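Tutorial handout. Part one gives the primary structure; part two gives the three-dimensional structure as tokens.
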Amino acid sequence: MQVLRELVEAYQAFEAYALPHIKKQGLTPPQFDVIATLGNTEGMTFKALGQRTLIYKTTLTSVVDRLQERGLVERVPAETDRRSIIARLTPAGHALFREIFPAHSEHLRIRLERLTDREMTEAIRVLRRLRSAFED
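Part two.
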């Protein structure tokens, strides 16, 4: 159980550092996640967006609703399957992405650069192995 405790505490420390920076941008963490995921894309289906962000479908709908109300995201029919809806950033959403994503990446980099390249590689390897222990 110690490994799970360390994992949870590491995630809590990450959130304590990252969340205030996200909130300073006027976004909730799920809103930031959607904008960051849609940035540099032509948009994606709600199913793909949910898989990439790990936001539950019902929550994702309300997050996109709020971003749409703010003029940052739009819904458009998929060209290949009109039953599917694509969520994509509006020009204002792309502008916000270009403003906040590099700043947030830099905010995280400041702390992550405390790890050596070797430590980062090892952390990735161990976390992938831990994830695989819970899959299937």
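Part three, for discussion. The chain has a mean pLDDT of 94. The first strand starts at residue 44 and ends at 45.
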